[in-house]
Amino acid sequence: MSPHPEHNALPLVIQAKGLVKRYGQVTALDGADFELRAGEILAVIGDNGAGKSSLIKALSGAITPDSGDIFLDGQSVCFKSPIEARRAGIETVYQDLAVAPAMTIAENLFMGREIRRTGLLGSLGFLDKKRMLNDSIAYMQELKIGIRSMTQAVETLSGGQRQGVAVARAAAFARHVVIMDEPTAALGVKEGNMVLELIRNVRDRGLPVVLISHNMPHVFEIADRIHVARLGRRAAVLNPKAITMSDAVAVMTGAMKPEDIPAEWLAH
Ligand SMILES: Nc1ncnc2c1ncn2[C@@H]1O[C@H](COP(=O)(O)OP(=O)(O)OP(=O)(O)O)[C@@H](O)[C@H]1O
């Protein structure tokens, strides 16, 4: 059961309207719309080249769309870089893990946002390693990531645990949204399930999650709603509780035209 059956009652956290992005002759986004609601896991699925990555890059500041509008909490935004999106509270975890293997878990969690000790004159410039370590332990416990020592190097972890660190890092700093691009792609069954559980925990902490995935069983296991990208647009937003995987594939491939989709398949 979705914890939020009344999705249409929940506020929009991110809304995009009519996004267009061209690369020379190729139109990657051709008037794409997008809506992420508070407290949900929204899966984004689509065939290769459907425009999923371009959409997510536009939302996370990695590309600037040629036209269209993006709203964050109802305010119009125009991110010129991923740093700007991050400052606005949107954290993105890419498939090619942004972790530093030789650094410890605690160091990775605070990379770029280290806590410094403060004194009478404000920040002293010294890193507050103890506080970062304690905060790391607390985060990882809260997210139920079973890693014993935060001082071990990330390169000593399994693929799933590394992905766990990357997700935890994003979740720890995101104030609004966590976007994940294929977080379970390179993982085995057990590790993949661990990361799915972690994504649920992130949502249950109150952060909405956008999850790009080609893995249909994972999408159906975890998503509250499914955004289907096709030919640079949003073909539909489907309700995973009301459809089968082959229904979703039919919409994704165009075998089922958007205008023919039964109303009960659609998420609200
Ligand atoms: N930097 C780029 N330069 C030129 N063309 C690009 C660029 N990025 C994306 N494209 C093209 O835009 C279209 C949409 O690509 P995009 O990566 O957004 O799709 P996708 O749904 O994420 O695909 P995949 O599942 O294969 O990753 C494709 O035809 C792709 O070749």
Automatic annotation (TrEMBL):
SUPFAM superfamilies: P-loop containing nucleoside triphosphate hydrolases. Residues 14-256 form the ABC transporter domain. Coiled coil: none annotated. One of its GO terms (molecular function) is ATP binding. Keywords: ATP-binding, Cell membrane, Membrane, Nucleotide-binding, Repeat, Sugar transport, Transport. CDD domains: ABC_Carb_Monos_I. InterPro entries: AAA+_ATPase, ABC_carbohydrate_import_ATPase, ABC_transporter-like_ATP-bd, P-loop_NTPase. It comes from the Bacteria. Pfam families: ABC_tran (PF00005). This is Sugar ABC transporter ATP-binding protein. SMART domains: AAA.
